[in-house]
């Protein structure tokens, strides 16, 4: 994500209740696996139609960013925006399910516009941008050119690693700052892939060092996470801890908790080191046992938002969390595994129907409604976001693969 200037928000700026009604804390119906599998099959069919609708409104060389339902206007981005990989990635997830050639053709078209970002050394988000897109393409149809693009992307990403700090820099700032956000855990998967492909352990070592430094500095005693850590480039020590996109520095921004959960789950997958599994389990416990988590488990945008239960929900945080929980469930046993699956089922069932799932031709063609990007800067508030769709689709795919 791009550099963000942080400022503390006052209570008067948290105005979610004026935009969206509360859906309360009432008990939700828990569907059977058979019902969910049938529902998810329909969701992929609906996603195919929605994304064909979205493609018709997409200008050439532009990527979908969001849509504002109140004004019926889109916001698009260039290929260098951190979310650019989610649109082709979602198309490829949909194509895997429906085998629709039109969907695949659109994915290949937009990948051509994205390819140049393999040389981008100004962003930490090349994992999001390139692995969610070209990684998915390579999984479906492995090609030498996809491998080259991904390896070049990995090389570009590790140029941002500082061995004194032990992290990949997230946002560029003044020379005395070294800003690292919890989101950066999501970009490490690309580096492990690069090591497997080349045999060069450099990539994996950078990922492990980054994860260890983040583990040391990003988390509070209750296993909630700060959003941003500012390191001293001379000493490598953390000199400031804050939460830029959440309610307050000491609050638990919902999507930040989801990024951490997903990131340490993938770290365990790649290394099998117990410390990462334990961290993922601790984060999952913080999320699922939090008193402010609603019954349908679609979290409020911040677990400490002052106007709960009227605060806005963040469906994107739910999508990421559900996908992470489903993978995490495969690394534990018994009731713990069942609990993670059950929580993910509740989230995905809620996301599969109103008010979160959009009807055909609505929501600008995006699949999921009611996401929150950045309330402190009043951007992308209660709108669709590409990563909500992407991780929703991924979570359904993971659920289908469960035994």
Question: Can you lay out the helices and strands and say which pair or pack?
Answer:
Blueprint: H1 33-56, E1 63-68, E2 73-77, H2 86-98, H3 101-114, H4 126-140, H5 144-158, E3 161-162, E4 167-168, E5 177-181, H6 188-198, H7 202-217, E6 228-232, E7 238-242, H8 254-271, H9 274-288, H10 315-328, H11 334-351, E8 371-374, E9 379-383, H12 386-401
Antiparallel strand pairs: 1-2, 3-4, 5-6, 6-7, 8-9
Helix pairs in contact: 1-2, 2-3, 2-4, 2-12, 4-5, 4-6, 5-6, 6-7, 8-9, 8-10, 10-11, 10-12, 11-12
Describe this structure in words.
Mean pLDDT is 94; it is low at 1-25. The chain has three domains: 24-56 and 254-403, Alpha/alpha barrel (Glycosyltransferase), CATH 1.50.10.10; 78-159; 161-242, no CATH class. The protein has twelve helices and nine strands. With 403 residues, the chain is mostly helical. It has helices at 33-56, 86-98, 101-114, 126-140, 144-158, 188-198, 202-217, 254-271, 274-288, 315-328, 334-351, 386-401, and strands spanning 63-68, 73-77, 161-162, 167-168, 177-181, 228-232, 238-242, 371-374, 379-383. The chain has a three-stranded antiparallel beta sheet, with no helix packed on it. It has a two-stranded antiparallel sheet with strand order 1-2.
